[in-house]
Amino acid sequence: QVQLVESGGGLVQAGGSLRLSCAASGRTSLYSMAWFRQAPGKEREFVAQIRWSGEITSYADSVKGRFTISRDNAKNTVYLQMNSLKPDDTAVYSCTAVPTLGNRYWGQGTQVTVSS
Which of 21, 47, 55, 56 has the greatest number of CB atoms lying within 10 Å of its CB? Predict the structure, then answer.
């Protein structure tokens, strides 16, 4: 079992920055962690992913060059640094963990609101 707790969301003006954190607890070995987001009236979409070992990352085209995903294995925490934020980035951001065996886990989500 894995528990995920996100933090760092909030209200920011366009062009600003936020850093989201996702702390994982539990005894499950992880394969990767990722961030998804869901804006009002839209489907949930992939934002960024990072392998739990190695430095392999991937990003949605809409955030490439603006967002950076990173991890601190010692703290079992994944971060999403979001720069040059746009109003279109407004959404609930959710952290997800993929274990080496078993189903994906989800956090409760954190609201990010970017004002124009």
Answer: 47
Looking at residue 21, what is its pLDDT? 98
99-116 b/e (C-beta count within 10 Å ≥ 16 → b): beeeeebebebbebebee
Calpha distance 1→45 (Å, rounded): 24
Q: Tell me the backbone φ, ψ of residue 77, rounded to 5 degrees.
A: -130, 140
The type of residue at 15 is G
Cβ atoms 25, 36 nearer than 8 A: no
Sign of the dihedral defined by the CA atoms of residues 51, 55, 61, 63, in that order: positive
Q: How far apart are CA 70 and CA 75, in angstroms?
A: 12
Alpha-carbon 8 to chain mean position: 10
> Which residues are 113's β-sheet partners?
11
**Beta bridge mates, 6:** 22
Strand partners, 19: 81
Beta bridge partners of 115: 13
